[in-house]
Structures are given as structure tokens and as C-alpha cells.
Amino acid sequence: MAELVRVAALTGYLEAMAGFGIDPRPLLREQGLNAGQLANPEQLIPARAATRLLECSARAAGCSTLGLRMAEDRALANLGATSLLILNQPTLRHALAALTEYRARINSTLVLHIEEAGDSVILREDFSLRRPEPSRQSSDLALGVLVRLCKAVLGEDWTPGAVCFTHQPPSPADRRVFARVFQCSLQFDSEFNGIVIPTSDLDRRNVRANQDLADHARRLLEAVMRPDAGRIAQDVDQLVRLLLPSGRATIQTCAASLGLPVRTLQRMLEDEDETFSEVLERARMQLATQYLANPRIRVTDIAAMLGYGSTGAFSRWHVHAFGMPPLRRRRSLAVAR
User: Fold this and answer.
1) pLDDT along the chain (337 residues), means of 10
2) Structure-derived torsion over alpha carbons of residues 74, 76, 80, 86, reported in degrees to the nearest 10
3) Most exposed of 6, 136, 299, 314 (fewest Cβ within 10 Å)?
4) Domain assignment of residue 162, yes or no
5) What range defines the domain where residue 80 resides?
6) Does residue 48 form part of some domain?
7) What's the whole-model pTM score?
8) Same structural domain for residues 214 and 156?
């Protein structure tokens, strides 16, 4: 699957940089982009370029809350034609299902996992790039947009129970921006990026839902694109991330969890030009990048969260995957921020 994102993902970028008094054109050129491209929200651009642009721009502006500031004024309409379908779903559960179904039209690398556990649900967002990138700004932006989506369905007075971030706590001044955007409990140094809501919120009625408009939107979408068929790799990715800390992220466990023979799962992944080892490696690399970017998470803990029985085994894998030991890469990520 091509790693693409709609230009609409950068809505508010030019305005934010203007507010800092920074000319964004050199930053855009560094990533092979230009300001003219940002005029068409439906245009697709490389997701890696968009991710790097936000990280480089945050450093240039000396602002660790660039992504949040961009998310603050987002409307559901920024999702393009998909917004009509989402806004008119009968419940948040249906809206999130529609978002997942058409994710390739919005951002092919951003995956939403819905994890129900008793009275609470975690809406977890992960980036799945073939070669992981530091993505704090993109992650914060995605969480801000997700909260805006939930508010559009459940009402502007709705707030999540908590929002979790894998990065370390911001400065007191920056924390005020987080509080303003999310208006709920904030948890930093978390094991995931996501929001926590009551299970009951998933099935709350959307008073604005209109089935005729939803059906019309689906017909419009299906006229211009086929819904993303690459679903089995997403399911496996979700299972891998859940099973890694227990050391049980194997194809046998995943196949059993999906009710499939191993060979059938292998064939289904092959149909999507994927293998289990590629999905596993991509998830580990993305999570390792995410965890190492937070200096408060010990390498020993990262090794355990990625399913390694020892720090040595994790370090050997990390050298093979990234060409350097974990601590050295942690220092390079700190310099890049």
C-alpha cells in the first residue's frame, strides 16, 4: 500500500507558521513539497514528507505544540467527502467504523485500534510507516483531530475521560495548550497514544444522524474509490501490538485469535503484499522509535514492551534494524527534536 496522506492533513500549517513569523517555503522544499500543493486539500502527498515537515517545523519554530495548535481549529469537514458519511452515522461506533473503512482516502499510514475493556474503551492511534519516523507532532495532531471527530458526533459538550501520550510531559506553558485542546485528564509517559472513553459513548445516539445523507455519501465515495481492502494486515498489526509485551506476538497466536489456520492467514497477507514478519517488524520499529523518543522510558522497559526477554536481545535486534544501539539512537532522536 502506498504511504500517502491528503494535503488536508496539513490544514492550518501555513497559518501556524505565519503566526511564528517563519517562511515555510524552505521547510516545504526540504521535504519535496511546495506551498502550491497545499492549496488542494484532496491532493495526496507522501506521508513521510508530511510527518517530517511537522517535526522540522516544530523545531524551527521552537514550538513543541505545533500539531496541537493545528488541531485546535479543525472541523470534521477537513476529512473531505468522508466527513459527510461519518457525521451522519447513528452512533460513534458506526462513525469510527466508517473512518476505518475509508482510512486510505485520508491517511493510509494512520491506524485506529478500538480496544474495549469492561466499562472503558481505548481509541488508540498508531502510525504504520515502513520505515518509522519520529512523529510526536503528527501523533498529537491526530489525537486532536480524533477528539474533534468524537465531538462532532456526540456534541460539543462531550469530552474524553483521558488522553494518553507516549512522550514525556510538556513544560507548564505548553501543558496549558494540551489542557485547552483536550479539556480532560492528560496522561504522559504512557504506553500508547490514544483516548479513553466510557464504553457507553460508543453506542450513544447521534442526534444529527441522517441515514439518507449517509447512504448518499457512501455512494459518492464508492464512485471515486474502492474501500480499503487491506484489512487483514491491519487486524494482524493490532494483534501484534497487543501481544508484544507478553512475548506471544507469533503468527500462530494471531491466526488462532482470528479463527484462521496459519496457512490461510499467510495467504491472506500475501494477497495484500504483506508477510507476518514484515507486519511484526514494522510494528516493533515504530514502537521502538516512539518509546526511545521519550527519555523517561528505560531501555529495559522498552525491551519488555517489545517482547524481548533481555535488554541484550533487544539491543541486538535494534542494531540490526537501525544500524546503531538503542542509547545512541535515543541521543540522535533527542537531537532531532
Assistant:
1) 84 94 96 89 89 97 96 77 88 94 83 92 92 93 96 94 96 96 96 96 93 84 57 86 87 86 93 94 93 91 92 96 94 79
2) 160
3) 299
4) yes
5) 65-223
6) no
7) 0.80
8) yes
